[in-house]
Automatic annotation (TrEMBL):
GO biological process: peptide transport
Keyword annotations of the record: ATP-binding, Nucleotide-binding, Transport
PANTHER family (alphabetical): ABC-TYPE DIPEPTIDE/OLIGOPEPTIDE TRANSPORT SYSTEM, ATPASE COMPONENT, ABC-TYPE DIPEPTIDE_OLIGOPEPTIDE TRANSPORT SYSTEM, ATPASE COMPONENT
InterPro entries: AAA+_ATPase, ABC_transporter-like_ATP-bd, ABC_transporter-like_CS, Oligopep_ABC_C, P-loop_NTPase
Protein name, entry field: Peptide ABC transporter
GO MF annotation, one: ATP binding
All residue ranges annotated as the ABC transporter domain in the record: 4-253
Domain of life: Archaea
């Protein structure tokens, strides 16, 4: 049994009040995260990555489908079970560290809820020791953090504090949603290394949500490529990156800026029409796909295992 099993997960939002249309932000998505596995969820803006993370965290409810954590249905947990049990096992770090702190409170207050919820019996000395240990582990000097307000620290420092807080709980699963996107390149690598180190030490599983292919490749064992709410390709990271099969994955990989290539103006792509995309019965990528055939617009291709631990949803690979 995997630590996390996501089965046929679907989330439909209604957009706009008058003449509103439905957005199938997550559409029949299934995947697993094993114990100690780092899985990247990759896709461009609007592909549904954050919605998947929010559904797993039970911040929103699915329209249909199941989320099993250690075999237990997450959608059926009560608020009390979520607070007391689930969030002890599943923690998250989001993109914008500034948004996660109250600007009027000293940084130290950020740890209050963790201690109230998960370590209510810990005394002040032990609490200080735990916090200082966690801060040191993420490369911070505790004396430079205590008593400070958020505006007195950099984005990188704040993000490290949030990671320290999440890891203090020693969760079984960490959802890192664009957790390093706002950081400069060297801090970013430090934090990625920290996450990898934490996985090695505590066997923590990580769902690493990113639009950045290079970061996903660097950190993850498995990769899931999403396009407009659907999984188009997934499997061992090495296989997905070195033998990409779906035309969308190939296009994404070809779009990664190369240090040897200079910018050249090629015109501005017109904005994509959301409404049309969600009404396509077949592959959502068909309108953009240079290889699309008639069947691609009509029938949704199923994910097929094309080699061991490598799945692709594309009619070019018999995905009908
Ligand atoms: N609460 C909501 N109400 C209506 N539509 C929503 C809501 N949340 C997300 N969506 C829509 O669902 C789709 C998927 O959004 P989501 O934030 O999951 O994508 P994403 O891949 O995480 O993108 P980004 O990288 O830009 O955060 C988008 O079209 C978005 O506009």
């Amino acid at each position: 049994m995997s630590l996390l099993e996501v089965e046929h997960l679907t989330k439909v939002f209604t957009s706009g009040l008058i003449g509103g249309f439905e957005i199938r932000a997550v559409d029949d998505v299934s995947f697993t995260v094993g114990k100690g596995e780092i899985v990247s969820l990759v896709g461009e803006s609007g592909s549904g990555k954050t919605t998947v993370g929010k559904l797993i965290l039970r911040l929103i409810k699915p329209t249909s489908g199941r989320i099993l954590f250690e075999g237990r249905e997450v959608t059926e947990l009560s608020k009390k079970q979520l607070r007391r049990e689930y969030y002890k096992d599943v923690q998250a770090v989001f993109q914008d560290p500034f948004a996660s702190f109250n600007p009027l409170h000293e940084i130290d207050r950020a740890f209050d809820l963790v201690f109230r919820s998960f370590f209510p019996d810990v005394g002040q000395d032990e609490r200080d020791e735990m916090i200082n240990g966690a801060l040191t582990q993420v490369g911070l000097n505790p004396s430079e953090v205590h008593g400070k307000f958020p505006h007195q620290l950099s984005g990188g420092q704040l993000q490290r504090i949030l990671i320290a807080r999440a890891l203090l709980v020693k969760p079984k699963l960490l959802i890192a949603d664009e957790a390093v996107s706002m950081l400069d390149a060297s801090t970013r690598i430090d934090i990625l290394n920290l996450l990898g180190d934490f996985r090695d030490r505590y066997d923590t599983s990580i769902l690493f949500v990113t639009h950045d292919l290079a970061l996903g490749y660097y950190i993850s064992d498995s990769t899931i490529i999403m396009y407009r709410g659907t999984i188009v390709e997934m499997g061992d990271t090495e296989k997905v990156f070195h033998n990409p099969l779906h035309p969308y994955t190939r296009m994404l990989l070809e779009s990664v800026p190369d240090l040897n290539v200079k910018w050249e103006f090629k015109g501005i792509e017109p904005e994509k029409e959301e409404r049309g995309i969600y009404e396509i019965a077949g592959c959502r990528y068909a309108p953009r796909c240079p290889k699309a055939k008639d069947v691609c617009f009509k029938i949704r291709p199923e994910l097929r295992e094309v080699e061991k631990n490598h799945w692709v949803a594309c009619h070019l690979y018999g995905g009908g």
